[in-house]
Model the fold of this input.
Amino acid sequence: MPASIPAVSRLRSFTDSTAMARNPVKVLSTYLDNYGDTFRFYLGGLKGAIVTTNPDVIQHVLKTNSDNYQKSEIQVKRMGHFLGKGLLTTHGEPWKTQRRLIQKGFDRKQLDALSAIMQDSLAESIHEFDRRIENGPIDIYPQLMEMTFAMVARSLFGARLKREDIDLVSRTICTVQEFIVRQTLQPYLNPWFAVSGELKKHEDLRERADSVLLNYIKARRFQAPGSDLLQSLMDARYADGEGMGDALVLSESMQLLVAGHETSSNGLSWLLYLLSMHPETLERVRDEFGSVLGDRPLSHGDVMSFPFTTQVIQEALRLYPPFWMIDRMAINDDRVGDVVIPAGSMVIVYVYGAHHARRAWDSPEEFRPERFVKEKEKLRTPFTYLPFGGGPRVCIGNHYAMLQILMILSTILRRYAFQLVPRQDIEARAMVILRPKQGIRMHFTRTLATEGNAAPAAPGV
Done:
């Protein structure tokens, strides 16, 4: 590695590994302050990696020369072990083929069709939410996790998916993700995980969740076609006319569940937190929803009608990007300016660091939705804002995620008044997703405009 790239020593990397497992954002941000926007360090003191927030390096890795960079061991091996081979865990031609097939499930026509399924799921979740807020303050993070997971699960498998099965798969995904983070940030513990039974325990959890979803997939083969994403996966055809087998449909479904729900639930959690801290912004967003929608629920056709709300969402995703890092592995030797990247090197695009870089953002720690007015978009340096990644592997469900966030936010803001419980220690913790470490507790009360309304989907509906 050339001397021009600063390096965190192997010893310090190992010493910091426990702190990395607790909160990698704190450690990596400290390294950025000490070593600059591109540096080398060792995961757990063992595995070398190049970390960068430099937009030129990021653009080169994710877009310009993306064919030279494949998913790293973290995703191909660790996540692939639990989630199978799908969009998140493959690369090269197999990934390109799958991407083309699955992309059709997220086009405008399909999102229009999914809007009704999503609203039905939201109605059921809001009914439960109403019941829970009667007992006092709630932690919004698990509530929104349940809400978004149920919506994604129903978008995938339709109304036949039982609530208890949704809960089982959701718990499994959360537990397995935490285990994958430990495997990655503390790789020296992997032999112990194997002999102690920890690995087997998590494999058994995955198998139970797999069997539940596989039963739905097998049953669908003999049922009338639906309008959900599962039907899109089953209807997809390769060049030879063949479709996906049950095992591949299962892998893709599980990976869409993993990627689909936490992006929105985390984004919504931080959104409500930020709005509670900025009441003037909250009222502008609420007024925008009211002026466009009145009492009716939001659908896919409304998405472009909320310019200010979209700016607020974008700023929340800048401050708290759900996917706080993107990892790649160099296939061949490469170079970006003075940065030499040998074959086999892991490159970590540190999204959180890029979103908080002073060179790209004025007062980056402040909440300023006006950063994202349309007039400023062309002035922004490319690859400094990456809430859904970038390049050919940009998140396939980014439009679904925005629809989901707007749909839930519009219902909550028109249905409830809310405020943050005082004296909380609110901190972000980077797992697979950047989540609130100790939750975010809030008081919710039904607004007068909706007190007499029996239907939970949205005010006045």
